[in-house]
Design brief:
Structural class: mainly alpha
Largest sheet: 3 strands, parallel
Helix content: 25-40%
Order of helices and strands: HEHEHEHHEHEHH
Radius of gyration: 18 Å
Shape: globular
Length: about 200
């Protein structure tokens, strides 16, 4: 998120980041091994506790049904717009950009999961993509389905390669190995206090 903010503030003309949101997916997503939204929401909140600009949106995880990314972005944009209007800010129609890894962008090739209308709505404001080890970012961005959105896809500089992922953290916990310095201390302490992922194999 910090790399995304730096990129927007320095490399996209006439743009300034006013805030960032992390949105944990709801329990209805039903992914194998997914921890409860209550625990994930708490961990994410602990992770950004010291951030002056990143907040946690609980709207998505509070929904009874799985919520498409398009609707989450629309909700966040509406919430921020309303707050700006209440404050009398000169800008009341903010651009709401998705920040993701190259692996998620690769998923955009699946038209059954990412339907055309949703894809267009998401990419209208733009996507900030962090390269991930194992994903050919040039191949991903060059996908035919993303061709017309090329100017709305911003690949972040890979200045500080980082292979830490939730999959890695879960695997290390399952193997009874340390995750200290891989996640914020408050997150690690919450995981340990609640015995999360102790039986994880991925």
């Amino acid at each position: 998120m910090e790399a995304a903010r730096d990129y927007v503030n320095t490399d996209i003309p006439n743009h300034q980041v006013i805030g960032g949101f992390l949105s944990p997916v709801g329990d209805a997503y039903e992914k194998a091994g997914l921890e409860s939204s209550k625990n994930r929401g708490k961990m994410v909140s602990e992770a950004v506790l010291s951030s002056p600009w990143i907040s946690v949106s609980t709207w998505e995880m509070d929904q009874d049904l799985w919520t498409p990314t398009k609707r989450v972005i629309e909700h966040i944009r509406m919430t921020v717009s309303e707050e700006l209007r209440c404050k009398g800010a000169p800008i009341t129609d903010p651009r709401c950009m998705l920040v993701c890894g190259g692996d998620l962008l690769w998923g955009f090739s699946d038209s059954e999961v990412w339907v055309d209308d949703d894809l267009q709505a998401i990419l209208t404001d733009g996507v900030l993509v962090m390269p991930r080890d194992g994903t050919d970012i040039d191949q991903v961005v060059g996908m035919k389905r993303l061709e017309r959105y090329r100017d709305a896809i911003f690949v972040l500089p890979y200045d500080c390669p980082n292979a830490v992922s939730s999959t890695l953290v879960r695997r290390l916990i399952g193997e009874r190995k340390s995750i200290r310095y891989l996640v914020p201390d408050r997150v690690r302490e919450y995981i340990e206090a609640n015995g999360l992922y102790s039986n994880s194999s991925d």
